[in-house]
Amino acid sequence: MFSKTIIDNDEFLEMPVSARLLYFDLGMRADDDGFVSPKRIMKFTNATDDDLKVLLAKKYVLNFENKVLVIRDWKVNNFIRPDRYTPTIYQEYLKRLELTGSNQYQLGSGRPDDIPSGGIGKVRLELGKVRLNTTTSYKEGIEIPSSWEPYKDKYGIYNFFRTDSQGYILLSKNNPPQQGQKNIIQEHHWVWLNERGEIPQGYIINHKNRIRNDNKIENLEILTSSSHLKKHRNEDNVMGYDHLPANPSSYGDKDINTITNFLKEKLGGSLDGTQKENRRFAYLLLGRFKKDYPDKEPLELIKSLIEFALRDSFHSKNATSFKYLYYNTQKILQTAKENIINPKYIKL
């Protein structure tokens, strides 16, 4: 599915882990010619617009009219027997592609489709970093306008959405938004306004589970600015970001240390991502298993999850951080259900 000449080169490995994971997910779900629609995949993997923009800028995927992508190195990564080949439904786009001498797709003559013109909110990718700028046009680097997708608003006002660089969902009445962006609102604010009412000055709408695109009303709460800061400071302490508080929760530093050390031992080395990020997602994973399997021991469940992931040929290459484990829990469990008879701990 993936050639080591592609995924082991320095250019690929220099990309953020989240962008690399998105590349793998797109490749796993592409058709037999390498075409894939990214919207649904990005939603259930929690990939951001910035992850996709990195892949576009690095030319690992090519974009056709913001509708469908093609994996540039599809022919390098895959060989499909003629008797098993199913032609793509995107024949009009396939005709616009050429194969290079190294068996890579490239767009035919004309302006590349993966760098569309117009729009607002441009991104410049330079030295592997993404910097947002809503007004400046750069002469250097690569410029990609932020994309807005159709949105079904149950309150009947907003028609388009996108995810910003911080993981919040933004809503707009128009695409692109009108000058000044006054018709843009964060989705969690919009949900609160409709379900609970006005947000007083000095108050903040907080995500209880710290997942910024989980905007169900039961996951939202209103806090003063000082209470919001204090709450997150205490949670960070519990997760081991700083010193532990006097009365840590039952899923504090000890349990996080147990599962992070377990994953390190299984991998035989350090984890991908920062220590802070891994501890945060380990904390969230503990909470998820406690909620979903209240009659079982969450530490043992997570150890089983890690073992299942490392037994699988695909997940074993990617399960190198708790962020990956957190966002791919169901896929790992489903694979375990299909391939492992009578799992020791988890019954789906």
Number of helices: 15
Biggest sheet record: 4 strands, antiparallel
Number of extended strands: 14
Radius of gyration: 22 Å
Question: Strand-residue fraction?
Answer: 5-15%
What's the helix-strand series? HHHEHHEEHHEEEEEEEEEHEEHHHHHHH
For the record, the count of structural domains works out to 3
| Lateral strand order in the biggest sheet | 9-10-11-12
Structure characterization notes:
The protein is α+β, with helices and mostly antiparallel strands. A four-stranded antiparallel β-sheet has the order 9-10-11-12. It has helices spanning 4-7, 10-13, 17-29, 38-45, 49-57, 74-77, 91-94, 187-195, 225-238, 253-267, 275-292, 298-311, 315-318, 322-327, 329-339, and strands at 35-36, 61-64, 68-71, 97-99, 105-107, 122-126, 129-133, 143-145, 149-150, 160-163, 169-172, 184-186, 203-207, 220-224. Residues 110-146, 238-251 and 340-348 have low confidence and may be disordered. Helix 3 (17-29) packs across helix 4 (38-45) and helix 10 crosses helix 11. The chain folds into three domains: 4-114, no CATH class; 148-236, Homing Intron 3 (I-Ppo) Encoded Endonuclease, Chain A (Alpha-Beta Complex); 253-339. The longest helix has 18 residues, at 275-292.
